Amino acid sequence: MRYWSVLFALAALFSIGAFVYSPFSPNWWLPNSADEPYHVVSKFGREIDSLFLIILWITGIVFIGTQIALVWVSYRYVDRPGAVATYFHGSQRLEVIWTIIPAAILVFIALYQMGTWASIKFRSAAPKVQPVAEITARQFQWVMRYPGPDGRLHTADDVHLVNDLHFVKNKPALIYLKSSDVLHSFFLPQLRIKQDAVPGLTIPVWFDSDRSGAFELLCAELCGWGHYKMRSNVTVHENQADYDDWLQRKIRDQNQSQLASADAAQGGK
Ligand SMILES: [Cu+2]
To answer: Which domain holds residue 215?
Structure first.
């Protein structure tokens, strides 16, 4: 029955088409900002994407090769009357070859990605800047603590917000990530940043954006029934003055609500 080889060929053609198409359509398989689908907005984003593409090329070429072999073998060695199957134990040489080639590819990827990994994850690579905020994940929100006018965290003038991350364009942003209950994962898809939030640990995370605008922060670790509620806003400000304006407004709001609650505690006088 050669029909099977035709069926395999169709499935292979469809998948190979998807492989060939994907590098030319980043918006199809990589999260980019909605209004500029081809523009990766961060330095790490570009590095991560080039790693994705290299892996896509390697797996794509191997995939195309194995699919062609699969279709050819199922076509060429179809069951025919009178054809007798032969059995053999295996080929040591073949096994050595198909072990060494993937191992070499894995070693290449492991070495090739080291620089990117180091610049995103090694603490020695963290930018020497004041943190933008301390972010504590909890079921089910991101509690964000921004340094107030004194520029320092954990002082009386800190600004407390929920699900609202702000930082400035073209400047390295550093946050301290915590969790107060279970594992969460701090995920900035358009910036290609992902870091687990681990109870008991304070983990520095840094990133940048060369484009101002609105992006997303998600939790990428299924952390309970309300996991989806951790989708949050990210705002990248055009410049420091813009950011300072925003923070001033938040400080005013916070002071007002504190006054209001103090007022209410005193019986509304
Ligand atoms: Cu979560």
So the answer is: 128-265
